[in-house]
Amino acid sequence: MTTSLENLETRQIDPTKPLLEVDDLIMRYKIKAGEVSAVEDVSFTVHQGEAVGLVGESGCGKTSIALSLLRLLPSNAEYVSGEIRLNGEDLLQLSDPQMRSRRWKDIAMVFQGAMNSWNPVYRIGDQIRETLDTHYRGEMSYDEQRAHMERLFTSVGLPPQMLDRFPHEFSGGMRQRAVIAMALACSPELIIADEPTTALDVIVQDQILKELKRIQRELGMSIIYISHDIAVIAEVTDSIGVMYAGKLVEYGATSEIFARPKHPYAYLLLRSTPSITGPRRILAPLEGEPPDLLNPPTGCRFHPRCPFATEKCVVDEPPLADIGGGHRVACWHYDQVPDLEEALVR
Amino acid sequence: MSVSQPARTDPEVEDGGVAGLVADDLTAGKGVSATPIWRVRLRLMRRSIVQNWALFRENKMGMVGLGMIAFFALMALSHPILMSTVWDPAIYDPVEGYDAVLTEYTVVEGEVTDPATQIDLQTARLERNPTIDAGDVITIPTQPAAPTVSGENPHYLGTDVRGRDILSQLLYSTRAAFFLGAVAAITTVLIATTIGSVAAYFGGWIDGGLMRFADLILLMPLLPLLIVMSAAFDINMVMLGVLIGLLNGFGGVAIVLKSQALSIKVKAYIDAAKVAGGGDWHVIFRHIVPNVLPLTFLYMMFGVTEAIALEATLSFFGLLNVPMTWGVMINSAQTAGYLLSGFSYWWLLFPAGLAVSFLAFAFFIVGRGMDEVINPRLRAR
Amino acid sequence: MTAPPLHTETKPLLEIRDLEKRFPISRGMFRSPTEFVHAVDGISFDIAPGESLGLVGESGCGKSTTGRMLVKLMEPSSGHIIFRDGDYERDVADVPRSGIKDFRSRVQMIFQDPYESMNPRRTIFDTVSEPLAVQHVGTIPEREERVLDLLRLVGLTPPENFLFRYPHELSGGQRQRVAIARALVMNPTFVVADEPTSMLDVSIRISIMELMTQLGRELGVSYLYITHDLAVARYMCDRIAVMYLGKIVEIGPTEEILARPKHPYTKALLSAVPVPDPSYRRTPVEIKGGISKAINPAPECRFIQRCPFAGEVCEENVHPPLEQRGEDHFVACYRVEEIERGEVVPH
Fold this sequence. Notes:
Oligomer: heterotrimer
Shape of chain A: globular
Largest sheet of chain B: 3 strands, mixed
Largest sheet of chain A: 8 strands, mixed
Mean pLDDT of chain B: 81
Strand order of the largest sheet of chain A: 6-7-8-3-9-10-12-11
Structural class of chain B: mainly alpha
Helix content of chain B: 55-70%
Number of strands of chain A: 12
Low-confidence stretches of chain A: none
């Protein structure tokens, strides 16, 4: 595969500098039956060049966070409080036109379901050109645009002549590559990848994940991966946040969380993920169903399904507290959760 | 057969209103309902009607339409009551009635300056007898007569060219309009649902044949066809309803319902029903038709609209063998030459014309309201 | 062509022989099609009574088509599916119309999407009792009793609360339990499960997998478990068959295949599966390109275009037959031994 990133703008990164800071974000959807508390008090930081993963089951609020960051929420959504700072500037204070100009230039998004992100009646190249037109009006000539798009395609491993093809002429994996090329078009500092490989077969998924990882490293970008697939997140991220019912329940370095998950939900989630490697272990099912976010449970939102729950959990909501080394957990009884290794070897 | 399985109780399920309702009907532990199944089904049906009604009620236009239909229904019901109580059949019968409304005219020689009160000598002699002279005052029954609200036999909407009460005709025709709409709509739905579902399910040459036939009917100009047919045959209301229903059902509606049925045919529950052992007709009538039905009801509403409008058109040309409808009312005004009279004889044209428009419109907006209940995508948040 | 023999002495429950399904690619109304997609291209395998066989492969490899032919939702273009259940022995393709209900009570299917596999306008009772109703088994109260038993069996308790609910009132996991109840209501001996857990969340997936395994064991049901997820197949299946473009390229006991894959495609597939352990380093995937469609495929090995080990022997011969390369382990590749000995390097 001839891929080259040489001609694309690379960024000097300082991994200690925060790029995106989300502070106490609360977002709710207003529906007829009441308010759905979709994102509740979520805080996390993405540093320059960092890959952060948000994992959780459907309806846990991970996609709502992604849309919140881009301010692409539907009209019935309401930001109750919180700040989303990109390089220190609060995105929630920007006017709509200001936000629009940031949207693809500073933060780009790779959506799930690559077929739906392309308009079937236009050539892929023309659709990328449209984005370039919006953000670099008058700054790039037609030929410069073409040259830039060819560089983009080469860098994601697609032959440049594919720019003149229509979306239906692409296979699923190629389409997702083109989506990544589109996301890179304005060299954003941050890419949000929402289930980037969910509809793809494993071999293609492997190729796409490798591509994303390489691009991120070489261009010095930050990526937020959003996925329900813990195995995918384990492979591509530096830090992960585990979400449950709209709340961030655990956050920390990926290796730390996979070795020593401290929140009972994270622990059970990892215990219930089958793997093709290692001994064939007993999988622990998580009992019960995720809660209704119209009437979330009192106290800790996980308490109805938690094997460690006590009276305190029903009444008091645990804060997301640092337990050392940037590993944050929202649980009163995190010290009772055993190490995963021990539990698995048993 | 016994398998130990940890009891999984879902808190959400236990306190649900419906669950409560159904669980009450079951004797705990015994396993078999205390209430026969048909009663449980009746309750479920009632609940679904209540839910759909709640959704429909939010649609203002739909509710306006429903109000209008209710008003027309009242009109239809009031006619037989009025006929048997206050209205004298000899005068007020919509078809056979006659009321001579008399007007006094002064016979003048030469120029008539006021056509409402004066009549020229020649016409007066022709009208009555040759002995009349200028200056005499004569009374002549006038038709159509303007609305009157007083007198022994008031005509609130006047009389038509043959001295029949317009209000009575209007009320009487409402019933006919409903009847025609119902016949046409039911025929449309029966034909279209069957054709659409069968074509979609079986595919192949059955689909090909039925759909080419549907295209053929769709391409035929409906109105000229009906005009030719009604000229050739003696068509009454029932026949007209069935005819409109057939043409509609075989044509456009069948094609729409077929595409809906096609989208249902590929659902996994159709495969599941086949794996369960269900035959073709079981799958069609238990799985495809019930899921096409909401759309069917929608087209039923639009079908009523179309039938009412078509009947008015055909009657206007006097092509139908019907005693009295809104279309016939307009037709009799037209044949007597009042069509272009404008506002001076408004009672001849406007009551019937507006009734046709409003009832057709009412069914149409009820249909649109139902559309929003059926298609959640159209529903405003 | 004979199928890889089973280790069991008993007669197999299912014998699939040279099963083929070709879909014509239609080019206009009056021209007879000249091109065919060879969705399933002459596969043979057996399923033992009580066994659970996993059919694994990428989308478009023909695994679902195979499953649909086994439950007679689709007719094979050629080949045989011999199904034995006690005294009952039939070729599935030859089941006459009159015998279809009998067949349907022995073979059932669980579908992938719990949101689409139930008629939204029918209650759970109607859905689960449908096989009983269409086959005229029992009176209505008897059917009700049977449905309640099954709902209890699949863990929907108390079952009375679920009987007259509609599918949309249930969660995905609960619906899939209902689907399992429907599949088991006639006491089948063989169930085809087409990706039954792929639409479910991780936490719910495990309980459904456990339920299916447990019920399979206790009720003596054999499964054909169709999945793209090798990790799930590992927990559900005794043996795994790997399909590629309509052909079975490798078949063998689950742990054997996972630990010692022999076909280059199986190897690639296994090394592409992400592992929920950040410290684990996978071996790099060695194959090139993406999967295509088997439209009038050339006679040689289906995998030749993407195979890093393809050589002359692969180009000169037809698609390799399944040959024994270990205990109950069969591989369709001419160069297995050379690759094992490290004599060929990937190119």
